[in-house]
Design goal:
Number of helices: 5
Distance between the termini: 48 Å
Order of helices and strands: EHEEEEHEEEHEHEEEEHEEE
CATH class of the largest domain: Alpha Beta
Strand order of the largest sheet: 5-2-3-4-16-15-14-9
Largest sheet: 8 strands, antiparallel
Number of domains: 2
CATH architecture of the largest domain: Roll
């Protein structure tokens, strides 16, 4: 059994990072690998895949750390602890052991001087692991039919339009050189965005809700849409409606 303890300097960064995933799936397999947090999750039907990493130094004081896999059963519950711990002298402790030649968390603690939360580590075998080779294949945008950049305000506007639209799906349409987001009752042309190829793809509106509202580049392929954040190392892939 081994133990490593990291001191947080930004509870907000840690909380916001975990929230990227909690809307998709309540369990999460986190990895500390080569000085980064790396997490990959998907909906039960695998129609949505989200992959994101962040440097440990964005969350913790400068410290050395050992690579380890951390399975969290209830991401939401873990995130809620930050409301009670505050910002002062908060520590993140991982107890781990070797399982199938991989260092695996068996217990996770987060605490300050007066309050401690303890969570069991979920076995990585409970998760469908997306290795780096598969992640690269899933997020490969080289076969995109067209792509464009979009700012966070426009993404938020589209979400607001979806909320008043009586339809389960949303479409990205390229027609006559222009690009639109379209629902049943709205069609929003994206200013300054052009495409040389007429095409369209539809996907579920609730899946669009998993996209972080950050300046992004969008790639439209035959079977999926890839959203790559320009503000963080985050990619979300949404499959088309069949």
């Amino acid at each position: 059994m081994s133990k490593q303890t990291l001191k947080l300097h930004s509870n907000g960064n840690f909380s916001n990072y975990l929230k990227r995933f909690s809307t998709i799936e309540k369990t999460l397999l986190l990895e500390i690998n080569n000085g980064k947090f790396i997490a990959k999750t998907h909906t039960p039907d695998k129609a949505v895949v989200k992959i994101s990493s962040t440097a440990l130094t964005e969350i913790f004081d400068a410290a050395t750390s050992s690579d380890v896999k951390i399975g969290l059963f209830a991401v939401d519950n873990f995130v809620q602890t930050f409301k009670h711990l505050g910002e002062s002298d908060v520590k993140f402790e991982i107890e781990s052991e070797k399982v199938s030649n991989e260092q695996t968390a068996v217990e996770i603690k987060i605490y300050n001087k007066s309050l401690k939360f303890t969570f069991p580590g979920a076995s990585p075998s409970l998760f469908k692991y997306i290795d780096s080779t598969l992640a690269k294949k899933i997020t490969d945008s080289s076969a995109s039919k067209f792509s464009f950049r979009i700012d966070k305000d426009t993404l938020s506007k589209i979400s607001a339009l979806c909320a008043i639209d009586d339809n389960d799906t949303i479409s990205i349409i390229s027609k006559d050189g222009a690009v639109y987001f379209s629902g049943k009752t709205f069609e929003l042309e994206l200013p300054g965005v052009t495409s040389k190829e007429d095409s369209s793809i539809s996907f579920y509106k609730n899946h669009f809700g998993f996209v972080d509202k950050e300046d992004s580049e969008i790639f439209v392929l035959d079977t999926k849409v890839i959203f790559k954040s320009l503000e963080s190392d985050t990619v979300i892939v949404i499959g088309k409606v069949e």
